[in-house]
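User: Sequence in, structure out. Go.
Assistant: Echoing your sequence, followed by the structure tokens.
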Amino acid sequence: MSPMRNITILGATGSIGLSTLDVIRRHPDRFSVHALAANTRVAEMAALCREFQPSCAVMADAKAADALAATLSDLPHITVLQGEAGLCEVASAAEVDTVMAAIVGAAGLPPTLSAVRAGKRVLLANKEALVMSGQLFMDAVAESGAELLPIDSEHNAIFQCMPADRVRDPGGAGITRILLTASGGPFREHSQDELRSVSPAQACAHPNWSMGQKISVDSATLMNKGLELIEACWLFNTDPSRIEVHVHPESIIHSMVEYADGSVLAQLGSPDMRTPIANGLAWPERIDAGVAPLDLFAIGRFHFERPDLDRFPCLQLAADAFKAGGTAPAVLNAANEEAVAAFLAGNLGFTDIPVIIRQVLAATDVVPAASFETIFAKDAEARRLAREQIRLLVV
């Protein structure tokens, strides 16, 4: 019997967190929850705490933490923590061996890094952490002996298609290319004029996946694929010239790996995040994830097309930022987060998102990403510039 794994879930009330808890719910003999962490959703968090009975619960927002503590006053065995310090504490706790890193955006970097430095098995669903800090992050993994397993469906697919001992040496494994798939989002067939008038509600209505608002907008702009391109380069020790993006609207082939002998290995499955989550939780074993069997007869056909970089320039902006190196990816990510937040708030047009990102990249000097302090400083600078540019566009 496999040993019990004790888990901290960062981002417990989001789509990845809830899917993780659903897999855990199916295997009470294999997984226990040490800590749950969220941002502001007190009612949802309280319900999860009552079901899973963690030792700790963390709310990033201080007022939310106070409200949660009051709500759980009848459960004195659950310690309620708050803020970044609380997140980092439960990510690195001695009782924990596995951390699901599913906080969206740059806010996920500090606790994810804490888990890495503590040598945990880190299930990485927060792509921004690796996009921002790249080499520093991977160096921390190597130094601590942490086990880094990708949870994004595409990166998990690539991981499954590679020899387990050659993930960081694709050339040595005879791998010639990574074929990174993209759904194309809800606006794949929209004209440039139609894109100018799309609403936040339309952008969040992904045709295949159930995701949070921010990642849904990123999928619609193809920035999500740009961030995944950067993440893949770091995870698999390669560069964009060996990665080809294929728009695959069915979202059944989650990515592919091409080998020197002409073989192409693909991982297929229904568009359900419980599959990669279960893979990471139980790796190298396989467990039931609650996912319906794939019906290829019902699907019938697969389609592929090249991404349109004219209508969706964010993918190219991400590739260019990776090529520029240093702090450029962190700036790209910060500008994108600010632009997407403004779009969701109704203060920016959909097609203005890449405009803001391009302007911020052009206005920010690229410096070597020599420390996390440098990265956080550039992140803050980029956010200030993005907010300024957004105000100018709104006026």
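User: And one key feature?
Assistant: The radius of gyration is 20 Å.
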